[in-house]
Amino acid sequence: MNFKERFALFFAVMGPGIVTAFADNDAGGIATYAAAGAKYGYSLIFTMLISTVLLAIAQEISARTGAVTGRGLSDLIREHYGVKWTFFAMSVLLIANLGTTVSEFSGIATSFEIFGITKYISVPAMAALIWWLVIKTDYGKIEKILLLLCLSFFSYVISGIMVKPPWPEVLVHSITPSFSGTPAFLLMAIGVIGTTITPWGQFYVQSSVVDKGITAQDYRYTRWDVLIGTFFTGFIAFFIIVSTAATLYAHKIPIETAKDVALALKPLAGEYASLLFGFGLLGASMLAAFVLPLSTAYAVCEAFGFEHGISKSRKEAPVFFGLYTVLIVLGAAVVLWPHLSLYHVMLTTQVVNGVLLPPILIFMVLIASKKSIMGEYANTRFFNVIAWTFTAVLIFLTTLLLVSTLFPNFLTDIF
Amino acid sequence: MNDLKVLGEFYFSQLSNKPIWDAKGRRIGRLYDMAIRWDSVSPQVTGIRYAKAIAALIPIEWVVSWDSTGLRLNASFDPLLTCPLHDDETFIGKWLLDKQIIDLEGSRLVRVNDISLSWVSHEDHQFMVLVAVDIGVRGLFRRLGVEFLLSRIENKFVGCQYIKPIESRTSSLQLTREKEQLRQLHPADIADIIEEMDYKQRANFLDVLDSQQAIDALTEMELDTQVEMINQMDEDRASDILEEMPADQAADILGELSSAKSEELLRLMESDDAEDVRELMQYEDDTAGSLMTTEYVGLPFWLTAEQAIVEIRRLAPEAETIYYLYVVDEQEILEGVLSLRELIIASPETPLKELMHSKIVKISPYDDHEKVTDIIHKYGLLAVPVVNDRDQVLGIITVDDVLELLMPERPHVESHTNLIARRRQAKGGHSE
Predict the structure, then answer these.
(1) What's the CA gap between B298 and B426, in Å, rounded?
(2) Which of A377-391, B66-80, B414-428 is the most confident on average?
């Protein structure tokens, strides 16, 4: 094959990794990275960079499993681990995704508040709109518009450069691990990992690969797609932390609401900073709010063999449409709770994601290492060592968080 | 079969993991899986696998009783007396449980939640047969140990005569029967089933279908799936199938592939089939040319009605429609058109020239889709001829091609991220 043909092939299989990556930097992602920068300055950059590397590994495993088996993750869990484990995995996914849907609606509410519209109008309206659009129209076009809106997050990159952060210091922090046993720090660290690598992201990238009809042969191009996507996730996250650290942390401005995060864009956009932020947040939240309830309903129905698909009627696939509707309604309803700090909802749900990630990771790695399923594409020993270490570390951190929340003095005595 | 007695009915989930005791009351192991042989009408259980690590089987004849406390054997257990798995046997748990099968009765892909077994006796012989698979929610709840929650809901079974496991592990006798049953399915149903399969299952499944059935099913599929399947097939097979498909569909599929791949496939196709397809591929997506097929019935004007009918018999198998017959001269220039009805009721000696209508509605290959729909609608046609500027017939557009355009684009999504696939289509589908 000559260069041009290779290039053409790459573009044909491109997509799943990059779309997942952009949907990954959703409302919760922005909130978490910004909070990390504003509260801890540059010290969490290290955690973020490590979790980006791990994201690349996790996404690679999922994409590879999808390409080799031609099946979704829930399907594989069901066939190889039976009903009980599937029930467990799907419960984990449901809780995590319900949480994430809530955080997307918080993002939608916040961005509309920036434009001066109360959440009591915007959230029900958008929930209805999403529900209706997904079922009645061609989502492909909407997705493009939303992806375009997400591009406004590149403004953090420009802003991050314009504030002239102390680069040597940033660099030092990027490679020195920092650790503190306080619940707040652990919470933040797990949040950062949980927002970068999400249970739904793993399910989503695998089924996108399957739906695109990518086979083991085309897989090497998909690997690049995944790596490029992951790079952008990390790239934007890095600059969000840098720009918030250089502006908010440096001036000791605490973040009370997500609107404060827009302050970090002041150097670039001046008085339009909050508008710019609002559009970006809206795009990211809507993108994920579209994808999440639908992909959750798909995964669950696929695992249990219920009829599913948007082309089916509500009568043919009651569980599918029921689940989809319940996720949207619940997600929106939680946000409408009066006096709820939307910003804290976004942060908390990322921690929940982080805590619920290990079970899903364990299934993923187990399946990807099975020769009987993956053949010659099974995980190498090196890959497995990294994947298991990471899972162990995450479980360790989660346990620490639990302990430190229950016995606040225990850890501070040790560290 | 008058003395067939049912001694008990079980679900696989109720037996699985139950302890096995031998005649001396020793615990041998637990029921890990069951081997079946499927050569007669009902699949019969032949042995029991009693541990994960041991592949050997306890022959089913040893079992004297099955109940909720476990299985009891009639002899004292000796590992040396166990038997290995035969070639024509397979483990049901591994092969069926939690897997997808084709429900031949409902013509769809379903997932097996549980397996229903029956312990019957017939003239001193006792055996365990697989009766049906459970595909209902109740079976799912039973597996989770909470069946009582759904005790009012009926079980949903698919009888074993109606199941077709995607992975065939049955005897060749059974396989022939399966093929016979698959032949009863409508190609559109087969198309729906295939669309839900993964690419490995598709490849296996296509091998079971006879080639005409495979082509018919492929013709019924959405363009996205067609493209995917052709891409995933080996090139010889793909080109064989493309040859047999209607040329307009083949052209649509090839138009979606990369230029290198479509060139390769065209090269492998028979030259006259390839030529037809190439001709159709040159038209832009939104023109009449892209809708038309070259498989029409063209009759020379000097034929009589009787000769024409003979000629139609020869041409009909290849043609997309035979209800409209196009009358042409030596240079393929369109002279007139007549319907099959007019031809049949005419007296045999009448020349076509006298039967045909010479005032013809026709369109150019460069007209847009809207014009095509307008004309077909306005004149109430089943098909409209497409001619070039010298009035030579290039092909026809049938009403069902137009119907596809008129149907509001229904989101045909079998999986949530199909969004990407449709995006590709919206772009005109060129992967370059």
Answers:
(1) 35
(2) A377-391
pLDDT given for residue A14 in this prediction: 64
Query: Sign of dihedral through CA atoms A283, A286, A291, A292?
Result: positive
Chain B: give the shortest CA distance to residue A212, in Å: 6
pLDDT tier at B279 (50, 70, 90 boundaries)? confident
Tokens (6 digits) for A47: 């955690």
**What is the DSSP secondary structure assignment for residue B4, as one 8-state letter?**
-
Nearest residue to B168 via CA among B197, B211, B201: B201
C-alpha–C-alpha distance, residues A248 and A42, integer Å: 12
Q: What average pLDDT does this structure show over B339-364?
A: 88
Distant-in-sequence, close-in-space partners of B237: CB < 8 Å, separation ≥ 6: none
Q: What is the distance between the terminal CA atoms of chain B, rounded to a whole angstrom?
A: 66
Cβ-Cβ contacts under 8 Å for A114 (sequence gap 6 or more): A259, A262, A274, A275, A277, A278, A281
Per residue in A63-86, pLDDT tens? Answer: 999 888 888 899 899 988 988 899
Residues of A in contact with B260 (CB under 8 A): 5, 8
Residues counted in chain B = 432
**Given a cut of 50, is residue B219 above it in pLDDT?**
yes
pLDDT band at A412 (very low <50, low <70, confident <90, very high): low
Say yes or no: A147 contacts chain B, CB-CB below 8 A.
Answer: no
Q: What is the pLDDT of residues A37-59, one digit of tens each?
A: 888 888 888 888 888 888 888 88
Tell me if B414 and A291 make a contact (CB, 8 A cut-off).
no
Closest by Cβ to A78, choosing from B98, B199, B414? B98
Chain B contact residues (CB < 8 Å to A): 97-100, 110-111, 113, 135, 140, 143-144, 198-201, 227-228, 231-232, 258, 260, 409-423, 426, 431-432
Best A9, A71, A79, A83 member to test B by mutation, with max B CBs in 10 Å, is: A83
Give me the residue from A9, A70, A294 closest to B198, CB to CB. Answer: A70
- The gap between the terminal CA atoms of chain A, to the nearest Å, is 57
Quote the percentage of chain A above a pLDDT of 70: 89
Dist CA A64 CA A373 (whole Å): 12
Q: What is the DSSP letter of B61?
A: G
pLDDT over 80 (residue A313): no
Give the 3-state secondary structure percentages of chain B, helix then strand then coil, rounded to 5: 40, 25, 35
Angle between helix A167-175 and helix A45-69 axes, rounded to 10 deg:
60
Cβ-contact B18, B63 below 8 angstroms: no
> Are B99 and B167 within 8 A, CB to CB?
yes
Tokens representing B105 are: 């009765």
CA distance A327 to A336: 14
A108 in helix, strand or coil?
Answer: helix
